[in-house]
Amino acid sequence: MSDVFCIDGTRALVTGANGGIGQAIVLGLAQAGAHVIASGRSSCTETVEMIAAAGGSAEALTLDLADPLGAAARLAEAGDLDILVNNAGIIRRADSVDYSSADWDDVMDVNLKAVFTLSQAFAKSAFARDAGGRIVNIASLLSFQGGIRVPAYTAAKHGVAGLTKILANEWAARGITVNAVAPGYIATNNTAALREDPKRSAEILARIPAGRWGDPADIAGAVTFLCSPAANYVTGAVLNVDGGWLAR
Fold it and tell me: Fewer CB near the last or first residue (10 Å), C or N of the chain?
């Protein structure tokens, strides 16, 4: 019996793969059989070494998504790809009345424009080869909610959800599925301060029906599913992986 969750023989590129959720996604895809290109602005050597130690196949590619067009132009260096996971993101915090144009542009370039330019380059390559593929974008709870003091991040993540849907509409007939995963509160370095604040952590956990912080591997599992044959008929979806946060 064939394994509909197996992605043996595929080549996947994951952005923001030097730690946290991105690193977990790379490990998950490698465990499912993909050769993974771990991409980041900083070194992804640790991620590649972890995969090699586990018997998987991976390599590293430096991409600076602060230059979305330049990063897209370099995508060909990764070779022919079957899977693209747009995970990289940054956040800048300030009251909206004080939010700077520079911070707005920086966040939008990495979190939204680069998602589009890399997806566009991926699709052009696939079409030229008459091949299909999988794109998975990492959205956020702030693809649905407003948040506080993160106007550019919220706007970008709303944009990721919308971009996921329009690209799914345009590319499904050409064999490319485009989906997104919206993580909830995940135990990573980015949430360390929240988890170490007893009052704030208790407030967050009280809102999560599952009663725990998410693990990066929870996101990796969802992404791997969307990249597998089991998700052949899934496109244009934004999958919440939040322990029930948005349902509360």
Answer: N
